[in-house]
């Protein structure tokens, strides 16, 4: 689940994401934490390919797309102890929910089922999952517990920041002189 990043540290796309995240968080929102902004830039870079977004699999190698199944059904292999597995899965759920609610919230705008707003579910689950991952983080783990706790505590700010990042990259695609 924690496979290698697809892009190297000097890749132009990685640098673009890092710059957009720094602009949104440090300048526009006022969150000046390099550990957090580095994490978010890396997450965006990691999620550039759909196989990385949907990387959790069941024991029979089926893709898990629903957050309600991720913690229960994700198979990470026999070499991962249960505490480390729970940390990795909850960190991933936090990343997954943050990515979709921040970068592509329109994908969550489907009709409510039984009065449940999918975006609200993602917000609550993301905060919860980052909090659990932070509690399960050992001193030697990366990212540190403090980053995961900050993601949990400031989840809504991070969602807003990622929406600003998307707006920034969409501005880059506009022809000169258009609004």
H/E series: HHHHHHHH
The number of helical elements comes to 8
Shape: globular
**Helix/strand/pairing class, anyone?**
mainly alpha
Helix residue percentage: 55-70%
Report Rg: 16 Å
Number of strands: 0
Task: Point out poorly predicted stretches.
Answer: none
For the biggest sheet, the summary is: none
Quick structural summary:
With 179 residues, the chain is mainly α.
Helix-strand layout with pairing:
Elements: H1 12-29, H2 34-46, H3 50-53, H4 67-73, H5 82-103, H6 118-135, H7 145-153, H8 155-172
Helix pairs in contact: 1-2, 1-8, 5-6, 5-8, 6-7
What does this structure look like?
The chain has one domain. The chain starts with 11 loop residues before the first helix and ends in a 7-residue tail after the last helix. The longest helix is centred in the middle third of the chain and has 22 residues, at 82-103. The protein has helices spanning 12-29, 34-46, 50-53, 67-73, 82-103, 118-135, 145-153, 155-172. It is built from eight helices and no strands. The chain is mainly α and 179 residues long. Helix 1 packs across helix 2 (34-46), helix 5 packs across helix 8 and helix 6 (118-135) runs antiparallel to helix 7. The radius of gyration is 16 Å and the shape is globular. Helices cover 61% and strands 0% of the residues.
């Amino acid at each position: 689940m924690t496979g290698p990043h697809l892009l190297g540290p000097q890749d132009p796309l990685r640098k673009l994401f890092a710059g957009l995240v720094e602009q949104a968080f440090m300048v526009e929102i006022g969150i000046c934490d390099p550990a957090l902004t580095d994490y978010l830039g890396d997450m965006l870079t990691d999620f550039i390919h759909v196989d990385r977004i949907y990387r959790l699999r069941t024991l029979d190698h089926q893709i898990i797309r629903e957050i309600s199944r991720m913690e229960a059904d994700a198979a990470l292999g026999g070499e991962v102890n249960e505490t480390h597995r729970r940390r990795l899965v909850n960190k991933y759920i936090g990343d997954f929910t943050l990515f979709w609610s921040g970068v592509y919230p329109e994908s969550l705008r489907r009709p409510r089922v039984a009065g449940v707003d999918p975006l609200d579910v993602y917000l609550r689950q993301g905060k919860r999952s980052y909090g659990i991952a932070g509690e399960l983080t050992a001193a030697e783990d990366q990212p540190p517990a403090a980053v995961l706790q900050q993601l949990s505590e400031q989840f809504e700010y991070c969602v807003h920041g990622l929406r600003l990042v998307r707006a920034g990259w969409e501005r880059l695609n506009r022809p000169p002189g258009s609004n």
